[in-house]
Amino acid sequence: MAYYIGVMSGTSMDGVDAILTDITDTAIAPIAAVSVPYPAGLLEQLHQLCGISPNEINHLGQADRAVGRVFAEAVNKLLAEHHLSPADIQAIGSHGQTVRHYPEGPPGNQNEDGFTLQIGDPNTIATLTGIDVVADFRRKDIAYGGQGAPLVPAFHAARFAELGKNRAIVNIGGFANITVLEGIDASAIRGFDTGPGNALMDGWCLQHLNQPFDRDGQWAASGNVHEALLSSLLADPYFVSTGPKSTGREYFNLVWLRHHLHSLDTPIAAEDVQATLLALTAITIADKVNALAQIRECYVCGGGAFNSQLMAQLEALLPHCKVMATDSLALNPQWVEGVAFAWLAWAYFHRVPGNVPNVTGASRAVVLGSLTLAD
Fold first, then answer.
1. C-alpha closest to that of 32 among 67, 86, 74
2. pTM here?
3. CATH 3.20.20.70 fits 152-329, yes or no
């Protein structure tokens, strides 16, 4: 057994997932998982850090330590539940929590160095768990001229590529990304962020229903797609730009949505907006898959795989493609990204590149991550 633990919190910030994974040169086998929510006060602080706010450096430093403690809590809970000791684990692969993603520089300063920022102090995680930590995966890719995202395509290829199968792997978290796999040809791997996943729907749901997400898309199903709003949203230049490209809440957020709502200057029922946001996510994913005529299998992971309305719309928009969740390939949709960062920790020690230059735009493939020893 070669156990690695991947620890992940995505842009939805709906909890920290820790995934125990057995990884060898020939197999990637997830074993077990736990999820730990952020404390309410820390969650509020993280949301504030995603935008410009007073006293940012102090808040960032405190949140960095606090996120590290929650990540360590998730790892220790996983160890306790499965009667494992720190010595049983080769390493932790920690994604951290993204609070800013400006790979081409902030708006208005795009001639300056781009950056991405994930917090969750690896020293805190290593100290509290007694396990070596590989973290800071994205910034090496940016240093080589890439977007730092998406990073999952290399893992998708390692875990899901199959000879003779042309597949799309679609991760729908807060934002959605697609990986295109043409058999086992590593040179043919493509991928990019398609745009919003759950982030806009979650934010709109929280604002109007005081609920963190729209379970099964039921609220969206109660409304009707507003065609004028949908057309306005789809006209955003991001959707027609070619990759490499990545995005986040810095670009697609409720301020962006309100701009489009105000430009229409007509009242729209809240449930109709939700239905339109769900359609936006489905259409912007399906358009990219449909543009790839050879793709006949589409596997969905992330929280969006559990939204039955979203999955139904994807099936309707992809009539020539089988649409399934990744559990059809023996990997729980909620575990995929956590397993990806366990694999990236394995890749660090085995000197396997973790980025795909065709995807991120980096000048070359590189080993990702930085090591923090437990002692």
1. 74
2. 0.95
3. no
